[in-house]
């Protein structure tokens, strides 16, 4: 399960998630796409976190 306290630090950013952990974050999607190449396609997720608080239901 993803640590919600950790994720809330990155609101409004793109995050690279692997093995239920935020591996990296950036406001630049291109950066995340380049970093994702180092991980198996089927096991990595790139998501943009909403700017507004109250995202808990999205991560359950």
Number of helices: 3
Give the % helix. 25-40%
User: What would you call the shape?
Assistant: globular
* Total strand segments: 3
Order of helices and strands: HEEHEH
Cα-based radius of gyration, to the nearest Å: 11 Å
Across the major sheet, the strand order is 2-1-3
Average of per-residue pLDDT values:
84
- Runs with pLDDT <50, length 5+? none
Structural class: alpha+beta
* Main sheet record: 3 strands, antiparallel
What is the percentage of strand-forming residues? 25-35%
CA distance, first residue to last residue: 8 Å
What can you see in these coordinates?
- The protein is an alpha+beta fold and 60 residues long.
- Helices cover 28% and strands 27% of the residues.
- The chain has helices at residues 4-8, 29-36, 56-59; strands spanning 14-18, 21-26, 44-48.
- The chain has a 3-stranded antiparallel beta sheet, with helices on one face.
- The chain is globular and about 30 Å long.
- The mean pLDDT is 84.
Features:
about 60 residues, 3-stranded antiparallel β-sheet
Structure, briefly:
With about 60 residues, the protein is of the alpha+beta class. The chain is about 30% helix and about 25% strand. It starts with a helix and ends with a helix.
Please outline the helices and strands.
Layout lengths: L3 H5 L5 E5 L2 E6 L2 H8 L7 E5 L7 H4 L1
